[in-house]
């Protein structure tokens, strides 16, 4: 492996993100951390402690338009989120096949997605992973909402969506107008999704 300063920096950022995720994971059932105000405070703390983004990358914040994201699905077809689901609310859930909390929340995401009609919230899984590992995982734990792929790194789609530390899972709610309504660090609790996405309906 070619060890470059950029690679070392990304490993350090990822390790820091995992530490933050661990501390959040242990406190996720706290009413303070789980509340909207708690999430806003957590986001603010993560952004304040984040390294500067790479040149040309502007992480989005609540109220900003969704960044232009066009990524391949598991069949190699590129999906442009801005045009694939016009005027439909989106719940973009960033995950990976090796992320325990991500895996734990996927049945909840699937249940929510299966109850959305044609005009409901479209769930999108954005895997920071490779196609083989994601396909193997989905063979065991299938979901029927779209899954897109990106390579993890300091300028991946998650960072563009405001995930400054690369913590997983990470979710973003996009309104019908294409603007970011809210973000969430950490997994969804059982029956949390209906209330969490209500602002997009």
From TrEMBL:
Top-level taxon in the UniProt lineage: Bacteria
Domain Thioredoxin: 60-201
A family per Pfam: Redoxin
Gene3D superfamilies to which the protein is assigned, alphabetical: Glutaredoxin
Entries under SUPFAM superfamilies matching the protein: Thioredoxin-like (SSF52833)
Gene Ontology molecular-function annotations: oxidoreductase activity
Name of the protein this chain belongs to: Thioredoxin domain-containing protein
Source organism of this protein record: Pseudoxanthomonas dokdonensis
């Amino acid at each position: 492996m070619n060890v470059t300063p950029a690679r070392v920096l990304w490993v350090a950022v990822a390790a820091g993100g995992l530490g933050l995720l661990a501390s959040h994971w242990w406190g996720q059932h706290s009413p303070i951390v789980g509340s909207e105000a708690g999430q806003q405070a957590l986001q603010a703390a993560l952004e304040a402690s984040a390294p500067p983004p790479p040149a040309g990358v502007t992480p989005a914040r609540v109220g900003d338009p969704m960044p232009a994201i066009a990524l391949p699905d598991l069949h190699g077809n590129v999906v442009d989120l801005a045009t694939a689901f016009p005027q439909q609310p989106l719940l973009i859930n960033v995950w990976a096949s090796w992320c325990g909390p991500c895996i734990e929340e996927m049945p909840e995401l699937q249940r929510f997605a299966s109850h959305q009609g044609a005009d409901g919230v479209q769930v999108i899984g954005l895997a920071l992973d490779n196609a083989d590992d994601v396909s193997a995982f989905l063979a065991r734990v299938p979901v029927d909402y779209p899954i897109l792929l990106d390579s993890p790194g300091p300028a991946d789609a998650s960072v563009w969506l405001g995930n400054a530390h690369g913590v997983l899972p990470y979710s973003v709610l996009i309104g019908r107008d294409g603007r970011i309504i809210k973000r969430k660090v950490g997994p969804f609790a059982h029956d949390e999704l209906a209330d969490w996405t209500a602002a997009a309906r």
